[in-house]
Design brief:
By secondary structure, the chain is of the alpha+beta class. It has helices at 10-36, 108-168, 174-231; strands spanning 43-45, 51-53, 55-71, 74-78, 83-88, 95-96, 101-106, 234-236, 241-246, 253-254, 259-264, 269-276, 288-292, 297-305, 313-320, 333-350, 360-366, 372-383, 387-392, 399-401, 413-417. The strands form 3 sheets. A 6-stranded antiparallel barrel has the order 3-12-15-14-13-16. Strands 4-11-9-6 form a 4-stranded antiparallel beta sheet, with no helix packed on it. A 4-stranded antiparallel beta sheet has the order 8-7-5-10, with no helix packed on it.
Length: 418
C-alpha cells in the first residue's frame, strides 16, 4: 500500500537554494585563488647534489688528457733473409740482450749456397797460390838468364881486353880485335834488353797478381755474405730491452724485410696524452705536466705537440723530469694535467657540470640559511680542469649548486632538505 508523501514547505526550499548558492560561490573563489597561486618549489635532498663555495685568490688554469706510456726507443727486428719460421725461442715480455736469439728460421737453398761459396773460395785461394808459384818460377828463370848473360858479357869483355893488348903489341890484326868488340857490344845490348824485359815482366806479374787477388777477395766476400745470411737465420735481438711483440708464427714463410719482432727500452718512457682540440690552443712546449700513473704522480714537461688533429684530439708528448715509479711500462694508461698558467686574485668556483669557459649559465645560489636556492645568471671566464673563473653574478662566499640541474629547468627556486 502506498504511503502519501508530505509536501515540503517553501521555507525549506529557499534555505536549500541559498546554501547551495553559497557553497558554489565558495568553491569558485577557492578555485580562482588556487589558479592564481604559483606552484610550490620542488624539493631536493642536499646529499644528492654538489655544492661549492665561491672563492677569491689564485687559480692554476690547466687542462687534462688521457693517454698511455710509450717508449722513446723502439727497435723493429726485420728478416734479413727469406726463411721458414722453425721456432720462437722467446715469448713477449722476455728481457733480451743483443746476442740473444729470438726466432730460428730455416732456408735449405741458402745453406747450399753457403757450402758452394766456401768451396769456391778454397778453389780461388788454391789457384792464387799456384799462380804465385808459377810467377816465382818464371822470375827465377829470368834471373838465371840474366846471370848467364852477365857471365858471358864478363868473359867476352876479358877476352876483348886481352885481344886489345895483343893488338897494341901488333900480334893480331884489327879485324880480329873488331870481332871481339862486336861480341862485347852485342852482349851488353842483350843485357839491357833483358833488364827491360824483367821490368815489363814484373809489372805484368803485379797486374796479374792483382787480378787473381781480386778474384779471391770476391770469392771471400761472397762466402762471407752467404755465411752472414746463414747466421741471420738465427734472428737476434741486436739491442738490450724487452721483447714486446712477435709478429710471426711457427711454420710461416717470411720474406726479406718483413718485421719479425719489436723490442722496446723500458728505461726510456714518455707519455702521449690526447687533449681536446678546443683546449689545446693554449698548450706550449715546456709547460709542466703532472702525470698520474695509478701508483704515483710524476712531473714532466711537454716536449712535442702534434701539428695535426685526429678524431677531435691533439696528441702531446711528455718527457719526464723525475724517476718513474715501479710498474711503469709501455702502454700503461695514464692521466695528465697540463698547467697552462697561474691566475692571481680572481673569483672562482668549482667547474659546473654544464658550464663552459667564457659562457653565461644559470646556477642555483643558496640562501643565507641554506634551506632554499634561487637561480641566478653567472658569467663564466677562463676555466681549468676542476675550476672556472667567475666574472659576474657571484661573489666570494656564495654557495652554488654545481650538479646537473637540467631536470629543474622550468623552476627558478628549489627547497633543500637534509
Amino acid at each position: 500500500m502506498d504511503i502519501p508523501r508530505k509536501p515540503q514547505t517553501r521555507r525549506k526550499i529557499v534555505v536549500r537554494i541559498i546554501v547551495g548558492a553559497i557553497l558554489l560561490g565558495i568553491i569558485g573563489c577557492i578555485s580562482f585563488y588556487i589558479s592564481k597561486m604559483e606552484p610550490a618549489a620542488p624539493t631536493l635532498d642536499r646529499a644528492t647534489i654538489w655544492i661549492d663555495t665561491v672563492k677569491q685568490g689564485s687559480m692554476s688554469r690547466a687542462v687534462r688528457g688521457m693517454g698511455k706510456l710509450v717508449t722513446e726507443e723502439i727497435r723493429w727486428i726485420p728478416a734479413v733473409v727469406d726463411g721458414l719460421v722453425e721456432r720462437k725461442v722467446l715469448e713477449p715480455g722476455a728481457v733480451v740482450k743483443p746476442d740473444i736469439v729470438i726466432i730460428e728460421l730455416s732456408n735449405p737453398q741458402l745453406e747450399r749456397d753457403a757450402v758452394t761459396a766456401e768451396w769456391d773460395l778454397k778453389a780461388a785461394e788454391s789457384g792464387f797460390a799456384n799462380f804465385q808459384l808459377g810467377l816465382r818460377s818464371e822470375e827465377l828463370t829470368q834471373q838465371a838468364d840474366m846471370a848467364r848473360l852477365e857471365s858471358d858479357y864478363e868473359q867476352a869483355r876479358v877476352r876483348y881486353e886481352l885481344r886489345l893488348k895483343l893488338y897494341e903489341d901488333r900480334l893480331i890484326s884489327p879485324l880480329d880485335l873488331q870481332e871481339y868488340r862486336v861480341v862485347v857490344e852485342q852482349l851488353a845490348n842483350r843485357i839491357e834488353l833483358e833488364k827491360q824485359r824483367v821490368l815489363i815482366r814484373k809489372e805484368s806479374s803485379e797486374a796479374q797478381l792483382l787480378e787473381r787477388r781480386t778474384q779471391v777477395e770476391k770469392s771471400r766476400a761472397m762466402y762471407e755474405l752467404r755465411k752472414s745470411q746463414l747466421d741471420q737465420l738465427n734472428v737476434k735481438a741486436g739491442v738490450e730491452g724487452i721483447l714486446q711483440q712477435i709478429e710471426v708464427d711457427v711454420g710461416q714463410r717470411v720474406g726479406t724485410g718483413v718485421n719479425l719482432a719489436r723490442i722496446v727500452n723500458p728505461n726510456r718512457l714518455k707519455a702521449e696524452l690526447s687533449i681536446s682540440e678546443t683546449q689545446a690552443k693554449d698548450i706550449q712546449i715546456g709547460q709542466t705536466v703532472s702525470v698520474d700513473m695509478r701508483n704515483g704522480v710524476v712531473d714532466g714537461m711537454i716536449s712535442r705537440i702534434d701539428p695535426a688533429v685526429r678524431n677531435g684530439s691533439v696528441t702531446v708528448d711528455v718527457r719526464f723530469t723525475e724517476e718513474l715509479p715501479a710498474g711503469a711500462r709501455p702502454d700503461l694508461s695514464v692521466d695528465g694535467t697540463i698547467v697552462l698558467e697561474r691566475l692571481e686574485e680572481i673569483v672562482y668556483v668549482g667547474l659546473p657540470v654544464q658550464g663552459q669557459a667564457n659562457s653565461q649559465i644559470g646556477l642555483f645560489k643558496l640562501s643565507a640559511d641554506g634551506k632554499t636556492a634561487e637561480r641566478v645568471k653567472v658569467q663564466l671566464g677562463r676555466s681549468s680542469v676542476n675550476t672556472v673563473e667567475i666574472q659576474e653574478g657571484l661573489k666570494p662566499g656564495d654557495q652554488v649548486i654545481l650538479s646537473d640541474m637540467s631536470a629543474q629547468d622550468g623552476v627558478d627556486s628549489i627547497r633543500l632538505t637534509n
